[in-house]
Specification:
The complex is a heterodimer of chains A (528) and B (369).
Chain A (H helix, E strand, L loop, with lengths): L12 E12 L2 E12 L3 E5 L6 H8 L7 E6 L2 E3 L4 H6 L2 E4 L11 H5 L14 H14 L15 H14 L4 E5 L7 H16 L3 E5 L3 H7 L2 E6 L2 E7 L5 H9 L17 E11 L7 E11 L3 E6 L5 H9 L6 E6 L7 E2 L5 H7 L1 E4 L3 H5 L6 H6 L7 E2 L2 E2 L1 H15 L15 H13 L5 E5 L7 H16 L3 E6 L2 H6 L3 E6 L2 E6 L6 H8 L15
Parallel strand pairs in A: 3-8, 3-9, 6-7, 7-8, 13-20, 13-21, 16-19, 19-20
Antiparallel strand pairs in A: 1-2, 1-4, 4-5, 9-10, 11-12, 11-14, 14-15, 17-18, 21-22
Helix pairs in contact in A: 4-5, 13-14
Chain B lengths: L1 H12 L3 H30 L6 H26 L7 H17 L1 E3 L4 E3 L3 H24 L5 H20 L18 H6 L7 H19 L1 H11 L1 H6 L4 H27 L10 H11 L11 H20 L4 H35 L13
Antiparallel strand pairs in B: 1-2
Classes of the chains: A alpha/beta (528), B mainly alpha (369).
C-alpha cells in the first residue's frame, strides 16, 4: 500500500471488484462487496455455503453480471458480458461443478469453444494433443488426450477441468472448490502447479471447504458472510480458529439449545442402511448407516459435500433405491412399519416427507400460486366427489400460511414473488399439511437470510414440541450446534460420530467430518 | 390495449400480486381473442355472407372437431408432452365403427353379428382409448419420448385402419331396421336445438374438461407435473398415473372426433383425420399454452381453435387460393407464439426490476425510463 509507484515489484492489484451487488429474485446474494486480486498471489475466500463466494467468482469470470457495481482490470473499468470476454481479458475459472461434455474426449473438452485451427478452418488435432500431453505431464496425471471424459473417474475429470483452465494461459485463475474429488497426492501436485503459476505472476483466487488445505496455500485470506466481505488478512496472521470465528461471525441470532428436551418413542429407525451411489462406479453413497430419531427430537446430519447425507434422506423419502438394510417408521420402540419398499406417495401417507435440497428444482412448482403449492401434497384429503372442495382447501391453505408464517400478499400470489426464506416455508408447510410423523429436510436454510433461518428453526422446534421427529442435513457448523438436539456427523457414506450440541466444540465436529484434517502437508514440509 | 397495460402497471405498483396474475392471464388470452375479433371484422367486411347464421353454424361445426382434438392435445401439452397420433386415431375409430356396422362375421359359428348402434359407439371410443393407453404406457413406463412414441403410433394406428378396410372406405352406414342397427348416421347428423352434433360434443367436452382441470385433484396434478415434475413427484403426486391418463383422454377425444367425422362424411375412410394433429397443436399453442408444460387453459384452446377455423373458412369464402391459405395459417401460428415469448421475456424483466428496486430506497438514482 505504500510507495506503490516507486516499487513496481510490490504486489499490485490486477483485478478489483468495486461495490458489487447481486440480486436473485428477492434474495440478495452480494451486498456491496469490494474485493482485490493481487498479482502473483493466492487469495483464498472463506465463507459458509450461501455466503456469496461462488456468486462473486461467477461475476469475476463473466458467467453472471452484477446487479450493481463494476470491475476494474489494471485500473481500467471493464464489463464482462460472457465467459469468453473474461477469457479474452485473461480471467479463467475452474467451476465448482464439473462443466465437461462426457461424450467427448479429454482433448476436445480442453479446447472446447476455442479450438486451434489450421488452414481452411480445420481443427489442428495433433497440435491440441501435444498441448494436452504437456498439461497432463505438468499435472503428473496419466490421462491419454483421446480418452472419453465419461470413462474417467471423478477425480480425473476434475484434473481435466483444471487442465482446461491452465490451457487458457490466464493471468487470473479462479479455482472454486478444485479439490473436492482429488486424492491427497493429487492435491499436492495441484499446489505445486499453483506455486509455479504464482511464481510466473499469475493471480490465483481459491475457494475450498477444506479449511486447513486452503490456509496452507493462501497468501491472503478474505472471509465472506451473508453476502458481505467481513475480513481481509495476510496469511501470516491467520489460523483455523480465526477463520472459523470470522466465518460464523457473531453467534447466530437464534439459539435453541435452551429448549427443553422431551422426547417420545422412536419415530424413525434406520438399520444397516446401504444406498448405491447414483453416479455409478458401484460405490455406496450410504454405507451401513444405523440411526434413530425420536418423536420431538431434532437431529442434525453434519458433513462435507459428498458425505452421503443427501442420498440418505432421499432414500428415506423414497427417491433413491435402498440396496439393503431396513427403515422403520413409528410403532413404539420395538417394531414398526418397514417402509423400505414403498413409494413416495405411500410414505407421505405413512407420515414421512422430504423438504429437498434444491428448492427451485425439487421443491416448488414455479408456475403455481403460493396456495396451490401448499396444498399440492394433500389434495386427496380435500376432495369430495372427485372435486377439490374449495372451502376446505382455502381454509387449509390459510391454516398453513399462518402456521409456518409465510409472508405473502395472499394465497393467490405467484410463488416466485416470495423471498427465498418464504418460499422455503411454503415447501415445509406443504409437507406439514400432510401431517407427518417424521420430517426430513436437506439444507433447509441454503441461500436464505439470517432472519429467515431463525424463523425456520423456530418453526421446526415448535413442531417438534408437538411431537414431530426432525432429521435435517446441514453444512453450516453454527447451525448444527445452535439448532439441534443431537448432531450426527457423516463422512464418506458412514456415520462417524455423534455429538451433543451442548458440549461439542466446532473444531471437534469439523475434525470428525474431515473438514479440517485433510491428508496433505503444508507446502515445504517434507511428507512422511 | 394501452388501458390494459396501464392497469397492469398500477397493479404491479400496488404489489397486488394475485390481481396481477389474473390480468396477465387475461392479456395472454386476450391476444388470441383480439385476433379472433379481427378475423371476424375483416372477413365480414370482405364477404357479406361471413356473419350469416348459416355460415356461422357451418364454420363452428368445422371448428368443433378440431376443438375436441385440441382439448385432448391440451391435456398432453400441459404435461409437457405431445400426441402426434390423434389424426390416425380419428381414422381408426371411424373405421372400427364402419366395420361393426357392416356386421362382424364369426367364421367358426358361421354367423354375422350386427351390434346395436350404442355398442358400436362404445367400442369405437374404446379403441381410441386403448390407442391412448398404449401411448401412455410407452411414454410413462418405458420412458420413450412422447414425440417418438406417438409418431410411431401415428403409423401403427393408420396401418391398422388401412388393414381393416383393405384401403377402401365403408360407405353403407345406414344399417337395416331388420338387424336393429339403424340410427348411427341419424344420431351423428342430428342437430338438436339447431346446433349440429359436433358443436354439442365440443360444448360437452369443453365443459367437462374445464371442470376437471380447474377443480379436480387430477387437474391440479397435471399442472404441477407440467410445471415441475421433480417437485410434483416429491410432493406425492402420482406422476406416472397422470401421464398415462392424459394420453388415454387424448385418445378418447380423438375417437369421438372419428365418430363425428364419419357421420359428417357418411362414410368410414381409413385416410380420415390425416394431419388433424397439426391443427390441434396449432390451436393449443395459439390459445396461449406453453409447449414446455404447466401453462394453458381450455378457454384459450377453444379460442385458438376458433381462430384457426374462422381464418381458414374465411379465406375460402373470399376465394384466397389454397396455397396462400397455408402460408397465412403458418404465419399466424408463428406470430402467435413469438408474441407469447416476447411477453414472457418482458414479464420476467419487469419482475426482476421490481425485485431489485425495493430494498434500498436511499440509493434510488434517476433510472432511464
Amino acid at each position: 500500500m505504500f510507495q506503490e509507484a516507486a516499487s513496481p515489484r510490490q504486489p499490485e492489484v490486477v483485478l478489483r471488484a468495486v461495490d458489487i451487488t447481486k440480486t436473485y429474485g428477492a434474495t440478495q446474494a452480494l451486498k456491496g462487496v469490494n474485493f482485490e486480486v493481487k498479482r502473483g498471489k493466492v487469495t483464498v475466500l472463506f465463507g459458509e455455503n450461501g455466503a456469496g463466494k461462488s456468486t462473486l467468482m461467477k461475476i469475476l469470470a463473466g458467467v453472471e453480471s452484477p446487479t450493481g457495481g463494476h470491475l476494474e482490470l489494471d485500473g481500467e473499468r471493464i464489463e464482462l458480458r460472457s465467459p469468453n470476454q473474461a477469457v479474452d481479458h485473461g480471467i479463467s475459472i475452474i467451476h465448482q461443478e464439473l462443466n465437461l461434455c462426457p461424450n467427448m474426449s479429454v482433448r476436445d473438452n480442453i479446447f472446447i469453444g476455442r479450438e486451434r485451427t489450421r488452414a481452411f478452418g480445420t481443427v489442428d488435432y495433433r497440435g491440441e494433443r501435444k498441448i494436452v500431453r504437456g498439461l497432463m505431464e505438468r499435472l503428473e496425471e496419466k490421462i491419454d488426450p483421446n480418452t472419453l471424459v465419461a470413462d474417467l473417474r471423478l477425480g480425473q475429470q476434475q484434473i481435466v477441468e483444471i487442465a482446461r483452465a491452465l490451457a487458457m494461459d490466464a493471468r487470473i485463475l479462479i479455482m472454486d472448490e478444485p479439490t473436492s474429488a482429488l486424492s491427497a497426492s493429487e492435491v499436492e501436485v495441484l499446489f505445486k502447479v499453483i506455486k509455479d503459476l504464482t511464481g510466473n505472476g499469475v493471480a490465483i483466487v481459491y475457494i475450498s471447504h477444506h479449511l486447513e488445505e486452503a490456509i496452507a496455500i493462501s497468501d491472503h485470506a478474505v472471509v465472506f458472510r451473508d453476502g458481505e466481505l467481513v475480513a481481509t488478512e495476510d496469511a501470516a496472521n491467520i489460523d483455523l480458529p480465526w477463520v472459523v470465528g470470522k466465518m460464523v461471525g457473531r453467534a447466530a441470532e437464534y439459539d435453541f439449545r435452551g429448549e427443553e428436551r422431551d422426547y417420545g418413542d422412536v419415530a424413525l429407525s434406520i438399520e444397516h442402511l446401504k444406498v448405491v451411489d447414483a453416479a455409478g462406479e458401484g460405490r455406496l453413497a450410504v454405507n451401513d448407516v444405523s440411526l434413530t430419531v425420536r418423536h420431538g427430537e431434532i437431529v442434525c446430519l453434519y458433513g462435507l459435500m459428498g458425505a452421503g447425507r443427501t442420498e440418505l434422506v432421499e432414500a428415506l423419502a423414497g427417491r433413491g433405491a435402498i440396496a439393503s438394510g431396513s427403515v422403520k417408521l413409528g410403532g413404539g420402540d420395538i417394531s414398526g412399519i418397514d417402509i423400505s419398499g414403498t413409494s413416495i406417495i405411500e410414505r407421505i401417507k405413512l407420515g414421512i416427507g422430504l423438504v429437498p435440497e434444491d428448492r427451485q428444482r425439487d421443491g416448488l412448482v414455479q408456475s403455481m400460486s403460493v396456495g396451490q403449492n401448499l396444498s399440492l401434497s394433500s389434495l386427496l384429503e380435500l376432495t369430495k366427489r372427485f372435486l377439490i372442495s374449495r372451502g376446505r382447501e382455502s381454509s387449509r391453505i390459510r391454516d398453513g400460511i399462518s402456521e409456518v408464517r409465510v409472508k405473502t400478499p395472499g394465497p393467490g400470489a405467484a410463488i416466485t414473488s416470495l423471498s427465498g426464506g418464504n418460499q422455503q416455508k411454503v415447501v415445509i408447510g406443504k409437507m406439514l399439511l400432510t401431517d407427518p410423523k417424521v420430517l426430513l429436510l436437506d439444507e433447509p436454510t441454503r441461500g436464505i437470510d439470517v432472519g429467515a433461518k431463525g424463523e425456520i428453526f423456530s418453526l421446526l422446534f415448535r413442531e417438534a414440541k408437538k411431537g414431530l421427529a426432525v432429521l435435517y442435513v446441514t453444512s453450516e457448523i453454527g447451525e448444527a450446534i445452535t439448532a439441534s438436539h443431537r448432531i450426527v456427523v457423516m463422512s464418506k457414506g458412514r456415520v462417524v460420530r455423534e455429538f451433543d450440541p451442548y458440549t461439542a466444540s466446532r473444531e471437534e465436529i469439523m475434525a470428525a467430518s474431515g473438514e479440517s484434517e485433510v491428508g496433505i502437508h503444508p507446502i515445504g514440509t517434507p511428507s512422511e | 390495449m394501452s388501458e390494459l397495460s396501464h392497469a397492469a402497471g398500477k397493479a404491479a405498483a400496488a404489489q397486488d400480486t394475485s390481481r396481477k396474475i389474473n390480468l396477465r392471464a387475461l392479456m395472454m388470452e386476450g391476444r388470441a381473442l383480439f385476433a379472433l375479433l379481427l378475423i371476424v371484422v375483416v372477413f365480414s367486411l370482405l364477404s357479406p355472407n361471413f356473419l350469416s347464421a348459416d355460415n356461422l353454424i357451418i364454420m363452428t361445426r368445422h371448428v368443433a372437431m378440431n376443438a375436441i382434438l385440441a382439448i385432448g392435445m391440451l391435456l398432453v401439452i400441459l404435461n409437457g408432452g405431445i400426441d402426434l397420433s390423434v389424426g390416425s386415431t380419428v381414422g381408426l375409430s371411424g373405421v372400427v365403427a364402419g366395420m361393426l356396422l357392416q356386421g362382424l362375421e364369426i367364421k367358426s359359428l358361421n354367423v354375422f353379428l350386427y351390434p346395436a348402434v350404442w355398442v358400436v359407439i362404445i367400442v369405437s371410443l374404446g379403441v381410441g382409448t386403448l390407442v391412448g393407453y398404449v401411448n401412455g404406457v410407452v411414454v410413462a413406463r418405458l420412458k420413450v419420448a412422447p414425440f417418438i412414441a406417438t409418431l410411431g403410433m401415428l403409423y401403427v394406428a393408420r396401418g391398422i385402419a388401412l388393414l381393416i378396410t383393405n384401403g377402401t372406405p365403408f360407405s353403407s352406414l345406414e344399417g337395416e331396421a331388420g338387424l336393429g342397427n339403424t340410427g348411427f348416421l341419424t344420431f351423428l347428423k342430428g342437430a338438436p336445438l339447431g346446433l349440429p352434433m359436433p358443436v354439442w360434443a365440443m360444448i360437452l367436452f369443453a365443459a367437462i374438461f374445464a371442470v376437471v382441470l380447474s377443480k379436480s385433484p387430477f387437474g391440479r396434478w397435471l399442472y404441477a407435473t407440467g410445471g415441475n415434475e421433480r417437485a410434483a413427484e416429491l410432493s406425492g403426486v402420482p406422476v406416472k398415473k397422470v401421464q398415462t391418463r392424459i394420453y388415454v383422454l387424448s385418445g378418447l377425444c380423438a375417437a369421438a372426433v372419428g365418430l363425428l367425422l364419419t357421420g359428417d362424411l357418411s362414410s368410414a375412410t381409413p385416410a380420415a383425420g390425416e394431419f388433424f394433429e397439426l391443427n390441434a397443436i396449432a390451436a393449443v399453442v395459439i390459445g396461449g399454452a406453453a409447449l414446455s408444460g404447466g401453462r394453458g387453459t381450455i378457454r384459450g384452446t377453444l379460442i385458438g381453435a376458433f381462430v384457426i377455423g374462422f381464418l381458414v373458412d374465411g379465406l375460402v369464402l373470399i376465394g384466397v387460393s389454397q396455397f396462400w391459405q397455408q402460408i397465412i395459417k403458418g404465419a399466424v401460428i408463428i406470430v402467435a407464439v413469438a408474441l407469447d415469448q416476447l411477453q414472457q421475456t418482458l414479464q420476467k424483466r419487469r419482475s426482476a426490476k421490481a425485485a431489485v428496486s425495493p430494498p434500498k430506497p436511499s440509493e434510488r438514482t434517476p433510472a432511464p425510463v
